[in-house]
Amino acid sequence: MRGNVDTSAWACKLPETDVLEVEGVSVYVLHDLKALDLKPEAAGFRVVISGHSHVPKQETRAGVLYFNPGSAGPRRFKLPVSVGRIKLSEEKIEAEIVALGV
Question: What pTM was estimated for this model as a whole?
Answer without folding.
Answer: 0.86
